[in-house]
Batch of 2 targets.
Target 1
Amino acid sequence: MCRNIKPLFNFDPPASEEEIRASALQFVRKISGFTRPSKANEEIFNQAVDSVTAIARDLIGALQTDAPLRSRAEFIERAKARAAQRYARQS
């Protein structure tokens, strides 16, 4: 899984439209191999991002859980701690 795509379900506050679109863009970039498509591929690339955004929005809206909402701040802190450990070992 692409490291830049973050979980978006069951958070307080909920994922914004901007976050959903950003994850869709990362997904399309990953599977297409393009960071920025050529003019010839730009339209289909943007259509793919729009489609993945809509599907992700529908998925997040339809998922159900009995688990309590996760704190976005706590999630970010844990991720930073894991990154600090990972990069400290590489030095």
Target 2
Amino acid sequence: MAEPNDDMHAFGWDLGRLRYPSADSKPNDIWPGPPMFGAPEAKQLLNGYHFDVQFVCPKYVQMLLDIDPDVRIAAEKTRDAGYTKEALDDFNKVIQTAFFKKVVPRIIKNFNNMSIAVAQFYAARLAHIDKFGNDDYIDASTIKSRR
């Protein structure tokens, strides 16, 4: 892979370690760029919530793509074609199809199975805010107290 992802083997081929090049990247940089799975809002959310934010869990996506036979077959076809741009473009289409047809439905199913707990969480959060006020360490701007 091209920089800054030319050392993926050092990270155990972890999809979560894919990075965009930073604007001022130089070879052998310690921090070669931001993670590709990072959410655009991550810096604002990090300040308010104090945890790393990703738009989807790369380990979950990688596990589902790893077990998908269509992805494996397409990877082998790409290798057999010599990793040409055309072969990689075709492989990208397979990855996108697998994501939308296999990964996203699993995410939705898993979320639907526990969405009642999310509703209970937000109801309890609002009750907590009503009783104790906003916590200093939480950006409670998404839920306002009626007081």
